[in-house]
Write a structure and sequence with these properties.
single chain; about 0% strand; 3 helices; mainly alpha
């Protein structure tokens, strides 16, 4: 900071000194006095302004240092927040993947259960249909057997009517009476 001040003073003093030395119309002693007067004035000015300028420069340097420190702290906080967000996002992705996997597994389980229930229901329906067919088949067989029996009886009766005589009927009647009396 002090080096800057000295550099500024030199930049101001050198042109002034050159101007003072280059003035031809003035005498050398008067020019020398003016030069000394100017140096003294600038020295006094420097001495008076040295402290406020130095304080201002120090304050500015301190403010810049504090701003840099605050910026560094904010940067660290921002980096930490970014890491936290990345961690949360990674966790959310894991959670989403886990939920999706569980949903798929649950869907597969429900699918298997529905298929099994459908197969069981189909087996029940098939068994009921088979039972119905068996029952109707038995009923049809019974009806057919009964009908065949009726036809056989009718045919036998017809044959007996054609072939049995009154005498055969009388014998049969007598035999039936004897069987009934014996059974009593």
């Amino acid at each position: 900071m002090i080096r800057r001040s000295v550099l500024i003073l030199l930049l101001v003093l050198v042109p002034v000194a050159l101007h003072a030395a280059g003035a031809e119309h003035e005498t050398s002693s008067s020019g020398l006095l003016k030069f000394i007067n100017m140096v003294l004035f600038l020295g006094a000015l420097f001495w008076v302004l040295r402290k406020p300028i130095g304080n201002a420069l120090r304050a500015r340097t301190e403010a810049l240092r504090q701003a840099a420190e605050e910026a560094r702290e904010r940067r660290l906080k921002a980096d930490q927040m970014a890491k936290d967000i990345q961690t949360r996002l990674a966790q959310i992705e894991l959670d989403v993947r886990s939920i999706r996997d569980r949903a798929e597994a649950e869907g597969e389980r429900q699918k298997r259960e529905l298929i099994a229930a459908g197969q069981a229901e189909a087996a029940k329906i098939l068994q009921a249909a088979r039972s119905e067919v068996d029952n109707r088949l038995k009923l049809a067989k019974n009806e057919l057997t009964e009908y065949a029996g009726e036809l056989a009886a009718e045919r036998a009766e017809a044959i007996l009517r054609e072939k049995i005589t009154d005498e055969d009927r009388h014998k049969l009647f007598q035999e039936s009476l004897r069987e009934v009396s014996e059974s009593q």
